[in-house]
Every structure is written in structure tokens, then in C-alpha cells.
Design a protein that fits this description.
Oligomer: single chain
Order of helices and strands: EEHEHHEEEHEHHEH
Number of strands: 8
Number of helices: 7
Distance between the termini: 61 Å
Largest sheet: 5 strands, mixed
Strand order of the largest sheet: 6-5-4-7-8
Structural class: alpha/beta
Length: 213
Amino acid sequence: MAKQKYYTVWRGRSPGVYATWSECEKQVKGFQGARFKSFPSKDSAEKAFREGPPKDPFTTPKERAKAATSTTTATSSYIEDSISVDAACSGNPGVMEYQGVETKTGKQIFHVGPIEQGTNNIGEFLAIVHALALLHKKNDAQTVIYSDSKIAISWVKKKKCNTTLKETEVTRPLLQLIRRAEKWLETHAYQNPILKWETKAWGEVKADFGRKS
């Protein structure tokens, strides 16, 4: 008797974890840029979903062959029905702000700032957590979040903003936001994939403030 497999779909019609290949196939077949992988247990599949896709999304040659007939290259496109975040900072540290937008339309979902003594990575960290909190309130565990900051993504996964800012009257408001974000990560579970925006392939992230010189 074949062992039960679970399928993680990071990019498909409805990202999530599925208990059968037929359910997974419905999400990825014919979907441009689909990303999926099989796992031996539900726990490992759910953990992989939270962490985002690996470089090679296919476990077996059979899965790779199926993908070759139904999808394009994994990095060829991004998921339009997602949230993109970005931060802007004048100085390092300096005056910072961050925002989240609908990737498909560019419509702003939230904007915070300006805040004194911030950095781009701090802003990206706060923006990702802000997006996670909004999706959590909506009971949405599937929508993908894109950020072009590897550092901020790693901070979120570690549930810790690695900043050396000293607390002063000026930095206190920002540090309070950071602590609140860290506490949210410690007290809430989430499944939404947090993915790196591939700037070289896709251009600037859709939430970009457009201030690069």
C-alpha cells in the first residue's frame, strides 16, 4: 500500500496543502509559474508552505515531468493575487516609511510613516508583519506576501528584528512598533508564504516607492 503523501502548493490557483495529487493537480496544471512539492507528512508539508518554495520545487522525476507539460519555468512569473511590500528611507538610519499594495493592481492597502531613525530593512520587516496581521484578521492563510529584502524575510522567520538602535526619545516610537511586531510573531501562527521578489526577472517590486536614483 502506497504511503500517504501531502502536496504543498506555493504558487497555483489556490496555494495551500493538499492530501491528494488530484487536488494538487487542479491547482497547478496549466498555471503559469506553478510551484509545488510532495511531502511524507502533513506537518512537513505545512512547515514547507510557511517557509516558502525551495530552489527545486519537484521531489521526483515524475513530478518534474508533470510540471514540464503543465507549467512554465518556476521563476517566469509571480502570483498576481498577492500583497507586495516595500520601505523607503532617507539616510541609514533616517526618515523611514513603508507600505503594502495589491500586487495585481498596485492599489495601496496600508502606509505607515514617516518615522524617525529607521532603515529599509526595519521598514520591510514591519511591512511584512503588518501584512500578515491584516491577512490574519481576514482569516486568510493563503495569500502570498512579496518583499525584495532577504534580510527582512529572515528576521520575520526568526521572529526577531535584528536592530542595534538605542532607545532615545527619537527612536522610542519606532522601537515600540518593532516590539509590537515581534510580539505578534511570537503569539500568532501563520501559513501565508513570504516570498522573495525577484527583481532581476520581474522589475521593481509593485510596492516600490520609486525613489531610487
